[in-house]
Amino acid sequence: EAQVTQNPRYLITVTGKKLTVTCSQNMNHEYMSWYRQDPGLGLRQIYYSMNVEVTDKGDVPEGYKVSRKEKRNFPLILESPSPNQTSLYFCASRAPFTGELFFGEGSRLTVL
Amino acid sequence: RKEVEQDPGPFNVPEGATVAFNCTYSNSASQSFFWYRQDCRKEPKLLMSVYSSGNEDGRFTAQLNRASQYISLLIRDSKLSDSATYLCVVNPMNSGYSTLTFGKGTMLLVSP
Question: Does B46 contact A101 at a Cβ distance shorter than 8 Å?
Fold first, then answer.
């Protein structure tokens, strides 16, 4: 089954404790992206990657890092999480011809 | 003017009603347009792409008006299962899909 898998799905952490949200896709897509979704603000892009070893900032990259060492994985790293990073995070990969985005089920992060 | 604007709703309609959503975009160079559907606390999923000539998929019709820079989604014979948030998505780039811009979504509530 074609899918994008994120882990963890739910996480409560404290300020300053580094965490990583993993994302993996099995569709051999070159493009992957991370979004955060907040009430009243909609989906905002954090980082995206056009291919392995190619990453770029989206609209709200501050406080986040990413890496793309292999095509299927695109982890999101919060080096020193802060309460304003409490949000619902989505990873997505994009089909090359249709442009359709396939989203993971989301990771709900709470930073205390 | 915001890049992609949608009426947040909620639109409350009875079963069987016809409902229409509009979405305006600011970048006249935008090339690709999509409607996504997001159920509460779930990931967005592609509903349909929007083509220049307009397109229909069952009860759903999408149209593009480049001159006025808006796209629309028409839902006929609304079902309870149509209750969701509908996201307008625009690719503002002339080539490639390096970034997609999401509207904040329009909420639809279909009641018995």
Answer: yes
Q: Are B37 and B86 in contact (CB under 8 A)?
A: yes
Q: Which amino acid is at B7?
A: D
Q: Residues near A97 by Cβ (< 8 Å), separated by ≥ 6?
A: none
Place of tokens 């074609």: A2
Written as tens digits, the pLDDT of chain B (112 aa) is: 568 999 888 999 999 999 999 999 998 888 789 999 999 989 999 999 998 888 999 999 999 999 999 999 999 999 999 999 999 999 876 545 567 889 999 999 999 9
CA pseudo-torsion sign A92, B40, A36, A86: negative
* Chain A residues within 8 A of B96 when measuring between CB atoms: 50
Q: How far is CA B32 from CA A35, A98, A99, B72, in A?
A: 19, 10, 9, 14
Strand bridging mode B60-65 / B70-75: antiparallel
CB contact under 8 A, A101 and B44: yes
Interface contact A106-B46, CB threshold 8 A: no
Interface of A with B in 48-107 (CB under 8 A): 48, 50, 56, 58-59, 90, 94, 98-101, 103-106
| Residue A91: pLDDT band with limits 50, 70, 90 | very high
